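Protocol step 4 of 6: structure prediction from sequence.
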Amino acid sequence: MRMRLGLDREARRGLLLLSPTAGYALLMLAAPLVMVVTFSFWTQDYLDIDTTLTLNNYREAWSEPIYRVLMFRSLRISLIVTLATVLLAFPVAYFLSFHVTQRKALWLFLITVPFWTSYLIRVFLWKVILGFNGVLNTALLEVGFIEKPLTFILYNANAVVLTLAHAWAPFAILPIFVALEKIDRSLLEAAEDLGDGPLRRFVRVTLPLAMPGVIAATLIVLIPTVGDFITPRLVGGTEGLMIANMIQVQFGKANNAPLGAALAVSSMVIVAAVSLVIYLAGKKLGGKVE
């Protein structure tokens, strides 16, 4: 009986400690989300808001070709960015975990160096690097690899993918590194004793056990990049614009916030569905060591 009362007291104390954080999260996250969802069912005529519930905004969001093109372009760019980022991040995290024995903290510190500068400044730097007279074209012209500046590396989807992959690389490296650090090295030694070579050990032991970190890195990169609007605006041009840019236009110049809200909710639903598929697939792949 005393134990039960003690547990109840501890539980109440825990709830009391968590309540400010939970209340803040509800206020700053849940409340705006509810407002956006509610707004998506209304109608706006210049400055007047008609609160009559309607599905017209969703019909327009899914029937107009330009919105569908932007939605699926955003998803395609985000998937490419996620794939490229995770594939490049895994070797770095693997090297840090398995081959760096001293000064790991220093290496991790160096990975976070890009965060010392503003995200906006980093995007502008990529614009300078990829520009018609930028660093890359100038260097290639100097060494004679090209005869005239390349035009396909800026103001298109390629520039958006490259810039986003660089910006989100540290977010992919860190969760994969943490997952690799948790792997019991004795399992790898046992696999080696049983005759598995390096590649077989990696496929059968290391990769499945690192899958939680890979899934986390994938979701961490995928979800925010779908809603990025700064990078497409600065380096994407007309071919690299994404759905977030259209949402910004609807809330701003077009003065049609309900349609912008419907586009935002539709994007969230698509991203949630894709994220769930990725999570279930990754969980299945990394369910157990063979």
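Step 5 (inspection) to follow. The chain has a mean pLDDT of 88.
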